[in-house]
Amino acid sequence: KNLKKYFVASKSILKSKRTYVSAVNGVSLQIKKGETLGLVGESGCGKSTLGRTILRLTPSTSGEIYFDGQDINKLSNEQMRLMRQKMQMIFQDPYSCLNPRMNILELVRAPLDVFQVGTPAERLDKVKEMLEIVGMGEQHMMRYPHEFSGGQRQRVGIARALISNPEFVVCDEPVSALDVSVRASVLNLMNQLQERFGLTYLFISHDLSVVKHISDRVAVMYLGGIVEITSKDELYKNPLHPYTKALLSAIPLPDPEKKAAPKILEGDLPSPYNPPAGCRFHTRCEHCTARCKEEAPVLKDMGGGHQVACHLYD
Ligand code: SF4
Ligand code: MG
């Protein structure tokens, strides 16, 4: 609810003058139990920061984060430590988050050690079971991350994230670093695991075609704010926000005969250090009016849970 995350970007010599970057600029959204909410946007729009802030891996500047009705910003460190078991993260580059000096057994078992779950023998059994489930097999347990391919390392990353039986998992670009040939198998695995364990995913990606494959609903993010959110089918059939339309037009169509007029996004993503006033998309929007430069649009429900933040729909 109205989540904000500002970073201090620089302190000038005059101590009074600080520059803030609003990486997350007042985001309100709901993630429903058992669903996959896709979160898309260009790199630098604040998707990863939003994901980390929701998990309290990064403290939020203001706003509320409810998990099962509890505002987790109000939990003590000890309460939060217990809550962590229920909320996990899968990272983009499994290599950079897996300690190269730990073998697969130690890496996957680590969350159980941290949360002191079960006896050592039970933990070992659990690791074997989890590796089997992600398609790795226990014969690999004594090997090290560098001995595996990117796809296998991501399977280890997934086993590690799921071994503490989480309910909610933030997946930050989990297949973006992988070869296109192994992406589908990792996405399928994530789908199967969701069914099997009743998981809820926030699935972050800059790639609308990946999000389409896995999401139930999709939220589109631009410069720290959500500009559109709706069901996957509705978003791809009936996008409303000019930014969403531009993003979708950049996906190559399967049928080259049915060529839609490409809506090329003009210019770069503006700097979050100095975001445009009014609608943050106005510098790149072909429908921009005087009002857009002054007044920031808020998310409005267009019916059936399709929400959009754009003055065109007033
Ligand atoms: Fe474009 Fe205005 Fe809508 Fe922003 S509010 S997306 S500038 S039409
Ligand atoms: Mg990111």
Automatic annotation (TrEMBL):
Keywords: ATP-binding, Nucleotide-binding, Transport. The keyword Nucleotide-binding applies. The keyword Isomerase does not apply. GO terms for biological process: peptide transport; transmembrane transport. Gene3D superfamilies: P-loop containing nucleotide triphosphate hydrolases. CDD domains: ABC_NikE_OppD_transporters. GO terms for molecular function: ATP binding; ATP hydrolysis activity. Residues 8-248 form the ABC transporter domain. Pfam families: ABC_tran, oligo_HPY. PROSITE patterns: ABC_TRANSPORTER_1, ABC_TRANSPORTER_2. Belongs to the ABC transporter superfamily. This is ABC transporter ATP-binding protein.
